[in-house]
Amino acid sequence: MTVVPVARVSGGGGGGSGSGPDEEGHEASGTGGGVGLSAKPLGVYVVRDGRVSWRPALDLNKVIIGGQIVMVAALLVLRALIKARARTQG
After folding, report:
1. Burial letters for 63-75: b for 16+ Cβ neighbours within 10 Å, e otherwise?
2. Residues pairing with 36 in the sheet
3. How big is the CA angle at 78 (ends 76 and 84), to the nearest 5 degrees?
4. How many helices (H) and strands (E) does the chain have?
């Protein structure tokens, strides 16, 4: 069996410089910098007995946030139903 990991990788850079006197005649200078790198696992290809299958990575944060959104929506609907029922009975 062979497992081939797959990820989305992105990066960035930066720069900067500076020199010369400022408006009041004082000496001025500057510097700069920067770099960034991000890698997100997407899944793996599994090669077994000459067959290839894809196994996606599970992003647990998205699953949790999705569940929370559904729960908040359900609670808002339930609250609206309870208020509507209270108005019709009272």
Report:
1. eeeeeeeeeeeee
2. 12
3. 105
4. 1, 3
Say how far apart CA 42 and CA 57 lie, in whole Å: 5
For 55-84, the DSSP string reads EEPP-HHHHHHHHHHHHHHHHHHHHHHHHH
With H, G, I as helix, E, B as strand and everything else as coil, classify residue 15. Answer: strand
**Residues 25 and 66: beta-carbon distance below 8 Å:** no
Model-level pTM? 0.47
d(CA 48, CA 90): 67
Q: List the structure tokens of 53.
A: 């299958």
User: Please, what are the averages of pLDDT over each run of 10 residues along the chain (90 residues)?
Assistant: 94 89 75 93 93 90 93 96 88
Question: For residue 3, how many other CB atoms are within 10 A of its CB?
Answer: 10
